[in-house]
Model the fold of this input.
Amino acid sequence: MRQPRLSSVVERRLLVNYRVSPDAAARLLPRPLRPQLVHGHAVAGICLLRLGSVRPAWTPEVFGLRSENVAHRIAVEWDGPDGVETGVYIPRRDSASRFNVWAGGRLFPGEHGRADFEVHETPDRMHVALATRDGDTRVDVTVELSDELRGSELFTDLAEASQFFRGGAKGFSPTGSGSRLDGMELRTDAWHVEAIRVRSAASSFFDDPDRFPPGSATLDCALVMRGVPASWLPLPAMASGGGARPADRNAA
Done:
């Protein structure tokens, strides 16, 4: 079945980013993906995404759906037919939406697990916490809007960070079969991110010493995108040569 192009409004896309040792990141990646390095570090993180007005591109906005979602990401590169390409590998996707859990991997790319979210937001402060239904993953993040990007060892300023993450618009995630990666690309003509100061951040994914030995994953910075119209384009599946541990694959 041909999967439709989706339209949406990115109501909130909070990116909490970690500096990761290249070896630790590489162990989590299936072939042909490899870590994309910035100043000698791999880049990984949590995307806390609230989407509104999600519907097939040909459908009126009034019929769109709204959902809270989370994706754990690692910035990657691979050799494409025209040279090196960049994007993100998403070992796990979860959603509060029953529809997304059912439709992911069927009506649109990306299999999802189910999660419960707790969200408190003001224009200048955001708190997002979640726990997946399978008990595997917990996240608790509190951030505040900032006038500039501070303290990052990955990026010198907000403009450099914005350019890097804009280049990671293609996302690939594992499927239950393990033989291919589902792909989807974020497209928008209104790309805009703001700097965020992290007040607290806890993640069972990044705090797991089996996945990331002590010192191999360090919180670096955070960014947020709000109120941005965006479309999501299904990509051809990528053949996967394996390599990622089964425990890192998202729940169906």
